Amino acid sequence: MKTYTKFKEYTWLVNTIHQAGRITLAEINRRWLLTEMSEGVEIARSTFFRHKCAIEDIFGIYIECDKKNGNKYYIGNEHVLREDTVQNWMLSTLSVGNMVSESQSLHQRILLEHVPSGGERLRKVIKAMKENCQLHITYRRYSASASKDFTIDPYCMKLFRQRWYLLGRLTNGYLSTFSLDRVEDIKQLDSKFIVPDDFDGAAYFQDSFGMLTDDKMAVERIVLRAYGYEPYYLRDLPLHHSQREINATEEYSDFELHLKPTSDFKAQLLSRGEWIEVLKPQSLADELVEWHQKAIERYKKRK
Question: Which position has the higher pLDDT, 171 or 3?
Answer without folding.
Answer: 171
